[in-house]
Specification:
The complex is a heterodimer of chains A (227) and B (572). Chain A has helices spanning 21-24, 27-32, 38-61, 63-72, 79-94, 100-112, 123-132, 164-175, 193-196, 209-218; strands at 10-13, 115-122, 138-142, 144-147, 150-155, 184-187, 201-205, 221-223. With 227 residues, chain A is an alpha/beta fold. Chain A has one domain: HAD superfamily/HAD-like (Rossmann fold), CATH 3.40.50. In chain A, α5 packs across α7. The radius of gyration of chain A is 18 Å and the shape is globular. Chain B has 572 residues and is α/β, with parallel strands linked by helices. Chain B is 52% helix and 9% strand. Chain B has helices spanning 9-13, 26-39, 57-67, 72-89, 106-115, 132-152, 191-210, 214-220, 224-232, 236-265, 271-286, 318-325, 345-360, 380-397, 403-410, 424-444, 447-483, 491-494, 512-532, 568-571; strands at 17-21, 44-49, 90-94, 118-121, 157-161, 172-174, 292-297, 299-301, 331-333, 342-344, 367-370, 414-416, 486-488. In chain B, the strands form four sheets. In chain B, strands 3-2-1-4-5-7-11 form a seven-stranded parallel β-sheet, sandwiched between helices. The relative contact order of chain B is 0.15. The chains are: A alpha/beta (227), B alpha/beta (572). The A-B interface holds A 34, 36-37, 78-81, 83-84, 87-88, 91-92, 149 and B 382, 385-386, 388-390, 392-393, 396-397, 410, 412, 414, 513, 517.
Chain lengths: 227, 572
């Protein structure tokens, strides 16, 4: 049994802070266009196009289901390719959209706190983004299941997304001896409101009307970082 | 289950004298570095080197120490200590392992016989289809000469470096054993008779070529019309010399063919593996009571981590293929799932350390295989995909925005079966057929039309020749990438526990994606691709170059300062 004392930490959601979520979501199409052979591009392209309306439909209603539909198209691809495409996507598409103010602000936080990044995206995209931003810390993000290096398109548990983010963060904090009630959280998503209640101090990033009202009501802080 | 007691490499080598042959090769020099940097406990390392042109063995050794990036960290850490260590622990001897008594003076040879505890033979002719004479001398006679040295010596043991691919076309699990009487497919084969056959075949071809008339010689040359014109325009004494050059060229071609056909007949993939396998068989039949071990590495590639990640030299097996993958070349003959048994050179050196220590301790097995397919399999389709992905990232990071770079970065090489319609052989056949047709047509059209069409025809010929070259390279490597499913057992190395963790053979620690993308491909781009493109090799320049102080040496010893040692060709 692990008896070391619990530590506080700063949990930071990457979407709409370091880079806009909409840009990151293009990864699905990027992967489709970069399969190994032309027949694969055509086949998975069709599959991607067909799944897109369903994925969008569930985005607000059931984010986990939306994610499952999105990543099912990665079936049959190698882990190597996903990793390299993640790197390539970060370097060619996301690097120019990284928010310098946000990077500086996170660096300030990391000088006083242990930083833990979390995101609904795949770790293959998040890791290179943090690398490009020269940021380091633990990452809680999604992984696709694989067998002998081939992806099967299903997400590994615990899934980071929707309400399940709470349990993913809970599992992580238990495994790493982190006291959530002593920790800070920063997120630009209203959907993380449930998560905010578990932390000592919650900060909403660039909250819009509804979210800002909720923050005032719940006594959460709000911070404007240009994005 | 019994646990094997661990061995200490440093203790096993303590106060021992080592004779290293092939110390300037890719593998030999890396092992020498490991020996002088990591082990250090030996008493003396004798390095037997050939004279090359006007360069004595000593000069060659000094050049290697000074110019190879492999030794950079030692020059930079403490050059003086490094130089002193070399002065006291290393002796360079000018000789030739293919010559009787290594071409050394009696006094030197006797001294070695008395002193040497372990002979490590890393020398070998790695050209896949060499002249049979060269293969016979370097891969067979030199090995026999090494074994004969160990037999005459009071205490010397022999570690002979061979290759896993002596298994020929045999598929499945390749065990660590030598079958002295059979070919890979089980045909009966007497190595002594095979040796006699080789000698007779060489003599027969030499006689045949010597008897060729001038016309027959000129007819057998490529570009025969041009060569004939050149020849006829020469003076008679020049003609004699030219004829001798042509005769040697033809003989060489004939003997390459003889070796290739013989290897194929007995189910070996090329002359290199055929002659290496024969040397192993002859060790078994001629030296059954001697303390020797055969060390078989698989495909040796760039360093994994020692002395730094990604050192390579020239081009190894994957060099030409990965280079082609960075061009418009699209289809590599590869069978999905086939192991691509690559092993970094520093891991091979660790393996040599382990097997050499076992020999010195008197615990050695006869055969040690050193590969990755048994413990941590890397497949050819994975290698192909990672190569393409690596080129993609490289092109993207190059900052070039032109359309050619953009297309090339997405133009991925894919594995295809040899009989696929996309295979290079098929494309080449179509091209050759097309060229024959255009040649036929070209000869039959009027001269005034021929003239403007000439540049187009030249371009077509250039492309066909280029394609022929590429097809040749790809076919050369097909046995490793496409033809056979081979897993090389590495039980004998794996079961040895080594006290020094940095000398332990541990292929499981290789993370292939990292190795291929971050180590091997950058290494090939730095060290191998420039060589393929005919550019100058990168040479290191230390602040204080190393040089042997000859006056400190014993005066009678031959350090390559004179030219009395017979050259390889003279000895033959």
């Amino acid at each position: 049994m692990n008896t070391s004392p619990l530590q506080p930490a700063a949990f930071i959601r990457i979407e709409d802070l370091l880079v806009r979520d909409a840009w990151m979501k293009n990864f699905q199409s990027f992967v489709w266009l970069n399969r190994q052979t032309l027949p694969e591009n055509i086949f998975y392209g069709m599959q991607t196009l067909l799944s897109m309306p369903f994925s969008s439909f569930y985005q607000k209603r059931n984010p986990v289901k939306s994610q499952k539909i999105r990543y099912a198209n990665f079936h049959g691809m190698t882990q190597d390719r996903l990793s390299v495409l993640g790197q390539s996507f970060a370097e060619t598409k996301l690097k120019k959209h990284l928010q310098k103010d946000a990077i500086d602000w996170i660096k300030n936080i990391s000088s006083t706190h242990q930083v833990i990044f979390f995101s609904d995206q795949l770790c293959e995209v998040i890791e290179p983004i943090l690398g490009l931003a020269n940021l380091s810390g633990h990452i809680i993000s999604n992984h696709i299941q694989h067998s002998q290096g081939l992806l099967n398109g299903a997400l590994q548990n615990p899934i980071v997304g929707g309400e399940q983010t709470v349990s993913a963060i809970g599992q992580f904090s238990r495994a790493h001896n982190i006291a959530l009630h002593e920790s800070l959280i920063f997120s630009a998503r209203k959907q993380d409101a449930q998560l905010f209640t578990l932390f000592k101090e919650a900060t909403a990033i660039n909250p819009d009307g509804d979210f800002a009202a909720l923050c005032r009501q719940m006594n959460w802080q709000a911070k404007e970082i240009y994005i | 289950m019994t646990s094997t007691p661990s061995i200490s490499i440093k203790k096993s080598f303590a106060n021992k004298n080592i004779l290293l042959i092939g110390g300037t090769g890719f593998l030999g020099k890396t092992w020498l570095l490991m020996l002088i940097d990591k082990v250090q406990t030996m008493n003396k390392v004798y390095v037997l080197l050939r004279k090359k042109g006007s360069q004595s063995a000593r000069v060659r050794f000094e050049k290697m120490i000074n110019e190879s990036y492999l030794f950079k960290h030692l020059h930079e850490k403490d050059a003086q200590a490094f130089h002193e260590f070399l002065q006291t622990k290393v002796e360079v001897l000018e000789g030739d392992s293919t010559v009787k008594n290594f071409g050394l003076s009696k006094i030197d040879y006797d001294h070695l016989l008395e002193q040497v505890d372990l002979l490590v033979n890393c020398a070998g002719l790695v050209d896949f289809h060499p002249d049979l004479r060269d293969a016979l001398w370097t891969n067979i006679y030199a090995t026999m000469e090494c074994a004969s040295f160990a037999k005459q010596s009071k205490k010397s043991k022999l570690l002979h470096v061979s290759t896993c691919y002596t298994a020929g076309v045999k598929e499945g699990l390749i065990k660590e054993e030598i079958d002295p009487d059979h070919s890979p497919t089980g045909q009966i084969l007497d190595p002594e008779m095979e040796l006699q056959w080789m000698k007779a075949a060489i003599e027969r071809e030499e006689k045949k070529v010597a008897q060729l008339s001038v016309d027959e010689i000129l007819d057998q040359l490529p570009f025969r019309e041009e060569k004939r014109e050149q020849f006829l325009s020469q003076e008679s004494h020049d003609q004699k010399k030219t004829l001798e050059v042509y005769r040697n060229k033809i003989l060489r071609q004939q003997l390459i063919g003889v070796g290739r056909n013989r290897a194929k007949m007995f189910s070996w993939t090329n002359t290199y593996t055929y002659t290496k396998a024969l040397a192993e068989k002859l060790l078994v039949s001629r030296f059954p009571d001697l303390d020797w071990a055969v060390f078989r590495p698989s495909i040796i590639e760039s360093t994994h981590s020692y002395p730094f990640a990604g050192w390579n030299e020239g081009f190894n097996t994957s060099g030409p293929l990965t280079y082609l993958a960075s061009t418009w070349f699209r289809h590599v003959p590869a069978k999905r799932g086939n192991p691509f048994d690559v092993i970094p050179v520093d891991f091979v050196c660790r393996g040599i350390m382990v097997s050499a220590a076992q020999l010195l301790l008197g615990q050695a097995k006869r055969v040690y295989q050193c590969g990755s397919s048994d413990q941590n399999r890397f497949t050819i389709d994975r290698a192909t995909e990672l190569t393409s992905l690596s080129h993609r990232l490289y092109y993207e990071r190059s900052g070039k925005k032109d359309i050619k770079t953009k297309i090339l970065s997405r133009f991925e090489t894919v594995p295809v079966a040899k009989d696929s319609m996309y295979s290079l052989n098929h494309i080449y056949n179509v091209l050759s057929f097309f060229q024959k047709g255009t040649n036929w047509l070209y000869k039959r059209i009027p001269t005034w039309i021929q003239k403007p069409l000439r540049p187009a025809k030249n371009t077509q010929e250039k492309w066909t020749r280029r394609f022929e070259k590429i097809t040749g390279v790809v076919n050369l490597f097909a046995p490793f990438t496409h033809d056979y499913f081979q897993i090389f057992q590495t039980k004998n190395l794996m079961e040895v526990q080594v006290e020094e963790k940095d000398l332990n053979f541990d292929p499981m620690s290789i993370e292939w994606r990292h190795y291929w993308m971050e180590v091997q491909m950058p290494a090939l781009r730095t060290w191998s691709f420039p060589v393929i493109e005919g550019k100058e090799k990168q040479l290191y320049q230390p602040k204080t170059p190393f040089s042997f102080e000859t006056e400190k040496k014993i005066p009678y010893r031959n350090y390559g300062l004179d030219s009395t040692v017979p050259s390889q060709s003279a000895a033959r």
